[in-house]
Each structure stands twice: as structure tokens, then as C-alpha cells.
Amino acid sequence: MGSLWKSTVATLEMIKWEHSVFALPFALTGAVLAAGGWPSLRVLCWIVVCMVAARSAAMAFNRLVDARLDAANPRTAMRALPAGTLSSGFVGGFVVASVILFALGAAMLNPLTLKLAPVALAVVLVYSYMKRVTRWSHLVLGLALGIAPSAAWIAVRGTLDARIVVLTLAVLLWVGGFDVLYACQDYEHDRKVGLNSVPQAFGMKTAFWIARGMHIGMLLTLCWLIALFGLGKLAVFGVVLVALLLLYEHLIISPHDMRRMNAAFFTLNGVISVVFFAFIAADVLTRQ
Predict the structure, then answer these.
(1) Per residue in 61-115, pLDDT tens?
(2) Is the separation of the CB atoms in 7 and 90 below 8 Å?
(3) What CATH number is associated with residue 181?
(4) Which residues are bridge partners to 92 per DSSP?
């Protein structure tokens, strides 16, 4: 039992489950917009279950697929699988358990969420192979997180509204941009072993400009979202705060100094998603 507990703790550390905060607030934003307020507690709970389960399956699957690559990269060689802390069998079992939990959550919501569950899983799992075939794998990761608000809308309403897809596009650009920045850490390694990424394909300086362009696109898309839903001053203020946080993110790192990459990647992006949700939700709720 002690060994199982240690393996479970190591798995949760491996998948960085606490970083579910990246996508979960955007899923909750989709749910609040769909309901025109708070959805029922039952629906809200199952949305959270689906989000955490899908992300856990995707992260653990990625570690399985990339175990050999991680072992060859000094930055990732001490991850659980290449370091021998976890076995591939245990991690594979965790993936299966997470997929089952995700399917259960989808079934508890409505028929359309269950019908689309395999599509959602395919998107979040296929990302693990993208770095082998395209330099634009960052956008696939963006899509994997970006489907969260659209999926939450379906969970609440049982249908899809084209307006919420705009938020999916915004999240895609946001995640794609910060993943381009994060990939800059592996620039030399990716060139050496032939893995694809925007930094590897275009160089570090150009990669930073591409990330900036994606984040500007995200902000413009969020403005479009506000217009589509007729949101007010609180929502606008939330987007302004997101813009300032993104600006700070880009100011604290550069192609020549990436010492604060973890602060930019993990801390600031977690704050961005929470801030955006808080102000959109406040805007919607104060209009009831």
C-alpha cells in the first residue's frame, strides 16, 4: 500500500496536476457564459471532473510517449519515467483510469458530451506525437486546452454555439504563444536530435516575435468575444489586466535571458487564466 501511495504521489507530481489551473478557468468561463450565470452544482462538478481527468490522461500519456526523448534531454532526464521513479506499466494504468473517469464524467453530463468524448480525447492525446511531425505542435497543444470552454458550453446546454468557439481560438493562441516561449529552452537539444518546434525552425529571436504575435491575436480575439456576448466594463477591465500580465511576461524573459521562464510559464499564466475568469464571471453575474 505504501508503494502504491508513493507511486500515486509521484504520478501527480509528474503530470503537474496543479497546473490544471491553466485551462480550468477558461472551461468555467464557457460554463458561465452558457448558463448566463452559475450552472447547477452537479454540472459544474462533472465539468471539473472531466477537465482534470482529460488533462491527467494527456499529461501521463505524453510522459509515456516522450520517455526516451526525456531521458536524452538534460532538462528532462530526471522526470519520473527516465529516472526510474515510476514504471511505464503504472503510468499506463493511470492513463487508462483517467480516460475511464473522463468517459464517466461525459456520460453524466448529456448525450452530446458523451458522443464527442472520443474526439476530445483524440485531440489531447495526439499532441504527444506532434513534435515529431510539425514545427507547429504548439498550436495543437493550444487546441487541446482551447476546446475546454467549448466543451463546457456543450456540457451546460447540450449544443454548441459558434460564439464560444471564439474563446477556443483565444485560448489556442494564448497557449500556443507561451508554449513557443517554453520550447526556447530546448532550442539546442531539438536542433541536435531533429525534433520540430518554432524555435528550432526559425531561431530564438523569430520565435519570440511569433509568440508575441500569438498573444496579440489572443487579446484581439478576447475583444471580439466581449462584443459577441455584449459584455460590459468588468469584462473589458479583465482583458486589460490580461494584456498587462502578458506584457510583463514578455518583459521578464528574452532570447538572451530565460532564467525566469518558470515564473513566466507557470505563475503568470495561471494568474492570467484566473483573472480572466473572475472578471468575465463577475460581469455576467452582475447582469442577472
Answers:
(1) 988 887 787 777 777 777 777 777 778 888 888 899 999 999 999 999 999 999 9
(2) yes
(3) 1.10.357.140
(4) none
